[in-house]
Amino acid sequence: MATIKPRLLLALMENQADGGRRARLCAALREAVRSGQAVLGERLPSSRHLAQDLGLSRVTVEAAYAQLETEGYLRRQVGQGSFVAIDMEAAAPRQASGALRPAGAAGALRLSARGQRMVDTGGCHEPERPRAFVAGSPDLQAFPTGLWRQLLQRRLRQDAAALMFYGDPQGLPALREAIARYLGQSRGVRCHAGQVLVLTSSQQALQLLSATLLDDGDAVWMEDPGYAGARTAFSASGARLVDMPLDGEGATLDPARPAPRLIYLTPSHQFPTGQAMSLARRLAFIAHARATGAWLVEDDYDSEFLYDHQPTPALQGLDDQGQVVYIGTFSKSLFPSVRLAYMVLPEALVAPLVTARTIYDGHPAQPMQAVAADFMNQGHFAAHLRLMRQLYRSRRDVLLQALHSHLPWATPMDSRGGLQMAVRLPEGSEQAYTRQAAALGIATPSLSALYHTAPAIAGWRLGFAALPPEAIDAAARALERIGAHGQYRG
Ligand SMILES: Cc1ncc(COP(=O)(O)O)c(C=O)c1O
């Protein structure tokens, strides 16, 4: 039988972009066998010849042959040479076209129904790096990274062995204690550490709730407009979304509708409009959840940042029957990549959800949990929040002033808090204004895109918290050139 030509191996090696010479020769040999260019019984050049032809050392060629023998591609016989050891045609028959099947694909890609639903949602998208007026970013320049580093170093010095092992799937007890204390004191949440489940993000909380509480076709009531991350998580799980338009008191409750399985609310600072839900409406939702057995999910994503008065206490604190699941996140109050968030669960949900979370990922990284616990317990978290509230309040004021001076056609909807401000635009103008803002290099995230069945309001969600005052002012001045009818004035 013929001997494989060194030229073929050289060409195949040249196609391998990565790795050292030995790795590339191994990849070329595998490719020659898998593609049928080297067939069962075919002899390989001697290692001496191949080394000469390819300009490699003989040691490299010997090592590659030995590796391929271990993997089952080659057989080496003392005194006789090296031979292809596998019949690829018999082991993995070609399709009619003659091409080998691409790995893992049986013809057209076929996902599970659940997988397809997930892909169809388009997924979730995190905010871009801060620039005017990307929404949803905290100011990371102001974060005390030096202090965080010291706390991390101390923890790694003292507890490295424990922190590097797997941890409690419910979350580090010290962090759960700190969260329960913080929520009791500043959000009126009634809980103990045993009800806290530490997660990597609110998104993971929503995903976990979908997986454990919702069956295909279950109704989930959502605020309209509302948070896309929650819609995505619930609809990917096969739930049927039912929109609740807003009125002056918050999401509207229609008791005549068939009972939902779950109700998702952002009552303290409605996403995206910023309004707070009235006490009467909160009590009505709790009563309805109790009467129908629905779960009330309260996403309290940014109530650390209310500027003009104390935030309304959490809805969870009004519930004495265990209907409310409370979600909070450190993505905004610490930094997004810390990957720490939490749920406060009614007692009955603790064991099932802790078990379910072990199926996803075990727990968040222990060192980060430990440092977050120290940061909270030593008073740094409260101090950081105080500082950030002041900083963000002053930037909110700069934005309000800039809107007033330069963009009188953009009307703030509710500016009490948050890292972004929803503004109304003249009806029918959003698309044209957005295009013109983009041409000026300014991001103006859409408000109308967050409406579903309720009549959409033209507007933007202007992120301001991460921007220095000069950047807010400069961007507003640049947008001033956009005229009242979507045309440049000058
Ligand atoms: C309503 C709401 N919930 C949750 C989050 C984000 O939380 P996480 O980063 O923990 O997923 C956001 C982010 O903007 C949000 O607007």
| Backbone structural class | alpha/beta
Q: Average pLDDT, to the nearest integer?
A: 94
The number of distinct helices, counting runs of at least 4 residues, comes to 16
| Terminal CA distance | 81 Å
Estimate nothing, just give the exact number of structural domains. 3
Per DSSP E runs of 2 or more residues, the count of β-strands stands at 13
Strand content: 5-15%
What overall form do the CA principal axes indicate?
Answer: elongated
The gyration radius over C-alpha positions equals: 30 Å
In what order do the strands lie side by side in the largest sheet? 3-10-9-8-7-4-5-6
CATH fold label of the largest domain? Aspartate Aminotransferase, domain 2
Order of helices and strands: HHHHEEHHHHEHEHEEEHEEEHHHEEHEH
For the report, how would you describe the main beta sheet? 8 strands, mixed
Query: In CATH, what is the homologous superfamily of the largest domain?
Result: Type I PLP-dependent aspartate aminotransferase-like (Major domain)
CATH architecture of the largest domain: 3-Layer(aba) Sandwich
Low-confidence stretches: none
The CATH class of the largest domain, by name, is Alpha Beta
- Percent helix, as a range, is 40-55%
Keywords: DNA-binding, Pyridoxal phosphate, Transcription, Transcription regulation
Family: In the C-terminal section; belongs to the class-I pyridoxal-phosphate-dependent aminotransferase family.
GO molecular function: DNA binding; DNA-binding transcription factor activity; pyridoxal phosphate binding
Protein name: GntR family transcriptional regulator
